[in-house]
Design a protein that fits this description.
- Strand 2 and strand 3 form a beta hairpin.
- The protein has a five-stranded antiparallel sheet, with helices on one face.
- The relative contact order is 0.22.
- The protein has a single domain (6-105), classed as HIT family, subunit A.
- The chain is an alpha+beta fold.
- The protein is built from two helices and five strands; from the N terminus they run H-E-E-E-H-E-E.
- Bound molecules: guanosine-5'-monophosphate and zinc ion.
- Residues 2, 5, 7-8, 47, 98 line the site of zinc ion (ZN).
Length: 114
């Protein structure tokens, strides 16, 4: 846990969030500033700064994260499709340096992203 990390503080329940999934290694909660009707952030409970910091030992965690995203999208009724995004670094607009996957859906999504 990093005391100055917002998402570690959400994991520790020090900061409120609208949690939609809570399991031993993974937490999912609604984005405070949604970009679409469904916008959920799926994160490892352990602090990992970004997708660049993953290691060989994180294979099981990645499966857990992606299975959680499948469950979140199914529960939200996103049969028509959805997008999974993880921003890495400054140029991509990463603003919280704790690995998170955006699950976005519920409207038609443009491509390429801005
Ligand atoms: P990034 O820009 O790092 O890819 O995504 C960070 C996301 O975290 C943004 O979409 C932003 O709206 C969301 N966010 C920032 N602060 C909070 C917060 O306090 N609670 C929740 N639920 N989401 C937040
Ligand atoms: Zn963190």
């Amino acid at each position: 846990m990093s005391n100055d990390c917002l998402f570690c503080r959400i994991v520790a329940k020090e900061v409120d969030a609208d949690i939609v999934h809570d399991s031993s290694e993974v937490l999912a909660f609604r984005d405070i500033n949604p970009a679409a009707p469904t916008h959920v952030l799926v994160i490892p409970k352990r602090h990992i700064a970004s997708a660049n910091e993953l290691s060989d030992a994180d294979g099981h965690l990645l499966v857990d994260l992606f299975q959680t995203m499948a469950s979140v999208s199914a529960t939200a009724g996103l049969e028509g499709g959805h997008r999974i995004v993880t921003n890495v670094g400054h140029d991509a607009g990463q603003s919280v340096h704790h690995l998170h996957f955006h699950v976005v859906g519920g409207r038609s999504l443009g491509w390429p992203p801005g």
